[in-house]
Amino acid sequence: MTSHADGERDLISYLDFHVEAGVDAALDEHPHDRFGEAEAPPLGRAPARAARPAGPEEAPQRRELPPRDAPKAPPAQTYGRSAAAKPDEAAVDARAQAKETRSLEELEALLAGFDGCPLKFTAKNLVFADGNPASRLMFVGEAPGADEDRIGKPFMGRSGQLLDRMMKAIGLDRSSAYVANIVPWRPPGNRNPTPQEVSICKPFVERQIELADPDLIVCLGSPATQALTGTKDGILKARGRFYPYTLGTREIRILATLHPAYLLRQPVQKRLAWRDFRLLRAALDGRA
Ligand code: URA
């Protein structure tokens, strides 16, 4: 017989398995059996007596489970201020609103009230920035993970600790750099943000850069590099290079490098990141 303690252990290892696999965000109060829904006969219809091909008027209906609670989040495809808005409209909306902000505090408040990105509805917190916005250097990562989502600040987990060590190796810390992400809400289960989500959020990070006004930006990983430089190159090709970035009336530079999360998975590549960080130090010292 299975004891209560065995049952509890099984449940914990089942949950651990899901967390390990990245399934760590609850999107609804109740589970949905999507496979069962696809297979089961539509609700309210008697099973077909004889198999015959369904005509267009008999296209199988989706079997909807009755809602037990009012939904907490808007439907997955709701973008912008109205449910009818499309992702590109949400991006235009975001651009117009972001441009009007006059300070980083205003921009953060605007983002906190912006409903145009569906990621907001699955995230626990807005993850706006950390570090010193008055510094000459800004790091831009991809999107918050579970630790950042819980704490509400970027680069707080294992990749954040590695980033701190890399900064320390060239004499920097969070008082000498400003840190943000392309997307300020955690994608569920740590998946990559979609191109739509990036394009909706991009006007905000562009405004964040304008308001922080750094002399140099370091893009960590491919999504940040591609979004801010426009390159289509993968990060292993794009890294270690400077790209021009127009900031108001000045042209500053972006340096692309490897994301610390990638370095945790591929420690042998740290030597490339070390090269990039030495180049960063040289740029800050006016030697590159
Ligand atoms: N990875 C990122 O790109 N950003 C974070 O804030 C944390 C992990």
TrEMBL record:
<feature type="domain" description="Uracil-DNA glycosylase-like">
    <location>
        <begin position="128"/>
        <end position="278"/>
    </location>
</feature>
<dbReference type="InterPro" id="IPR005122">
    <property type="entry name" value="Uracil-DNA_glycosylase-like"/>
</dbReference>
<keyword id="KW-0378">Hydrolase</keyword>
<dbReference type="Pfam" id="PF03167">
    <property type="entry name" value="UDG"/>
</dbReference>
<keyword id="KW-0234">DNA repair</keyword>
<keyword id="KW-0479">Metal-binding</keyword>
<dbReference type="InterPro" id="IPR051536">
    <property type="entry name" value="UDG_Type-4/5"/>
</dbReference>
<dbReference type="InterPro" id="IPR005273">
    <property type="entry name" value="Ura-DNA_glyco_family4"/>
</dbReference>
<feature type="compositionally biased region" description="Basic and acidic residues">
    <location>
        <begin position="59"/>
        <end position="71"/>
    </location>
</feature>
<keyword id="KW-0411">Iron-sulfur</keyword>
<dbReference type="GO" id="GO:0046872">
    <property type="term" value="F:metal ion binding"/>
</dbReference>
<keyword id="KW-0408">Iron</keyword>
<comment type="similarity">
    <text>Belongs to the uracil-DNA glycosylase (UDG) superfamily. Type 4 (UDGa) family.</text>
</comment>
<keyword id="KW-0004">4Fe-4S</keyword>
<dbReference type="GO" id="GO:0051539">
    <property type="term" value="F:4 iron, 4 sulfur cluster binding"/>
</dbReference>
<protein>
    <recommendedName>
        <fullName>Type-4 uracil-DNA glycosylase</fullName>
        <ecNumber>3.2.2.27</ecNumber>
    </recommendedName>
</protein>
<keyword id="KW-0227">DNA damage</keyword>
<dbReference type="InterPro" id="IPR036895">
    <property type="entry name" value="Uracil-DNA_glycosylase-like_sf"/>
</dbReference>
<feature type="compositionally biased region" description="Low complexity">
    <location>
        <begin position="38"/>
        <end position="58"/>
    </location>
</feature>
<dbReference type="GO" id="GO:0004844">
    <property type="term" value="F:uracil DNA N-glycosylase activity"/>
</dbReference>
<feature type="region of interest" description="Disordered">
    <location>
        <begin position="31"/>
        <end position="97"/>
    </location>
</feature>
<dbReference type="GO" id="GO:0006281">
    <property type="term" value="P:DNA repair"/>
</dbReference>
